[in-house]
From TrEMBL:
Chain coiled-coil ranges: none
Annotated Pfam families: Per1
KW Ubl conjugation (keyword) present: no
Leader sequence residues: 1-22
Subcellular location: Endomembrane system; Golgi apparatus membrane
Family: Belongs to the PGAP3 family.
Protein function: Involved in the lipid remodeling steps of GPI-anchor maturation.
Protein known as: Post-GPI attachment to proteins factor 3
Ligase among keywords: no
GO terms under biological process: GPI anchor biosynthetic process
Amino acid sequence: MYVKMLILFLILLSMSITLTYSSPGDNDPFYVSCVESCKSSNCTKDGKGFKEDKQPFILKMTLWYCNHECKHECMWKTVKIFNERFRKTPQFYGKWPFIRILGMQEPASVVFSLLNAFVHIKMMRKFRAKVKPGSPLFWLWHLFFVVCLHAWLWSAIFHYRDFVFTEFLDYACSFSLLLMNLYLVSIRLLHNKVSKYALIVITVAFIMFLTKHVAYLSKRPIDYDYNIKLNVAIGTISGLSWYIWCFYNRNRQKYVWKCAVYVTISGTALALELFDRPPYFYVLDYHSLWHLATTPLGLFMYRFGIDDCEFLRRQKLDGDSKKDFPYTGKHQV
Ligand SMILES: *[C@@H]1O[C@H](CO)[C@@H](O)[C@H](O)[C@H]1NC(C)=O
């Protein structure tokens, strides 16, 4: 019953999230003519340079070209007009207006993405301090770390400045992060049940799937709808697999609650994506709060990893020293 409701919820969620490029703000005639006149009076012919360059250094560094500046300036003028007429603050090109800080387009999302990256670094250090290098699946957690850190850094860069290139990398990386979670649970559940060759086949299949979808994402225009449905499907499969596995092992491996908390937070945090309202103080929107909500994930998952590697190491030692005895599980923590 619970699982069915969860699936229904996720399907509804995947249908409700549709990203579009054209929004009320950038369609408004005032905005359109504002950008046009701003560009013709301030920008050079290619739209990038300024006729009269007074741009602060940090904005130059973060590639705010003249046409971007015009769009930014006209965005705020349009917002002001909308608010004066008591109309809801509009989106522009699928994004809410945010106060620009140090050239950051979406400062809150940048900060929270970096916070996620920081938690991964901190927890990996803890993992490396606590887990003995020869432990089973030691490498798997390192791979998890690299993929997650890479994804969060690109998320920060994309929210700093939205270009076709950074957008592509953000989408490709968040897909790689989700797929990494599915890979993690697959390998954890199968590594001592199937042969090494089967694991290699699984790994190759994951790499091929990643490559194929990333190639697909590189095509324009991005099919946001399909991408989100695929992401939700992958997230759901990994989450449910973890839940079921945690449930069956809850008595033998007391520490699995950490993993269950990880899955629960991921699922709950996703609900923040359902809200779509103008940002509080033109800084905090629900997308950034979603990134904030994912920061505790690393705290639980690496702690689970530490306990699990130790569990597997003892299990292996037990198995090696008492090969002739049937496994009783009595020696486990
Ligand atoms: C463009 O020029 C106008 C008039 O000089 C000025 O008010 C405006 O701030 C300029 N905009 C940009 C983006 O440089």
